[in-house]
Amino acid sequence: MLPSWMESLCLPCLDSANLSSTLPLDLSLWHRRFGHSNHDYVKQLHANDMVTGMTLSNKSKPDPICEPCLAGKMHANPFPTSYSRASQPLELVHIDLKGPIQVTSFGGYKYWAMFVDDHTRFKCGIGLKKKIRHLLCILAVQSLC
Ligand SMILES: [Zn+2]
């Protein structure tokens, strides 16, 4: 039981799903609200009355072009193949930093950095407890040059 002063602040829960909307309550809006779910799933949610307060004021067909969905389905083109190589060791070092990984390693590492020397193809992987430490690794490699 809520105190009386708090009950006066409570709003009916039936309208809670669209309480603050000033936009037309159409399928496109619900598609965005449900994290860009498939339009058919959103229609099923409404048709089966699975969401409290979900109303559709406009039942027109949603715009098939949703920019965030299109951006999410795009893929990046691969880097162009390079046929040039560094002429001496440490002239060019490729560095890849990965992390944070979901499960911390036994040593407490959350990140790892991979260094590949372009000339010799020597590879070195280093576990890192903090992301900032990769800068120290880069400085250490630069000091070898
Ligand atoms: Zn979308």
Please give the structural blueprint.
Elements: H1 4-7, H2 27-33, H3 39-47, H4 67-73, E1 93-98, E2 111-117, E3 123-128, H5 133-144
The structure holds zinc ion (ZN).
Zinc ion (ZN) binds at residues 31, 36, 66, 68-69.
Q: Report low-confidence residues grouped into runs of 5 or more.
A: none
Q: Which term fits the overall shape?
A: elongated
Class computed from helices, strands and strand pairing:
alpha+beta
Strand content: 5-15%
- What would you report as the Rg, rounded to the nearest angstrom? 27 Å
| Small molecules (ligands, ions, cofactors) in the structure | zinc ion
Would you mind describing this structure in some detail?
With about 140 residues, the protein is α+β, with helices and mostly antiparallel strands. The chain folds into two domains: about 20-75, no CATH class; about 95-145, Nucleotidyltransferase, domain 5 (2-Layer Sandwich), CATH 3.30.420. Helices cover about 25% and strands about 15% of the residues. The chain has five helices and three strands. The chain has helices at about 5, 25-35, 40-45, 65-75, 135-145, and strands at about 95-100, 110-115, 125-130. It has a three-stranded antiparallel beta sheet with strand order 1-2-3, with helices on one face. A hairpin with a 5-residue loop joins strand 2 and strand 3. The chain is elongated and about 70 Å long. The relative contact order is 0.10. The structure holds zinc ion. Zinc ion (ZN) binds near residues 31, 36 and 66.
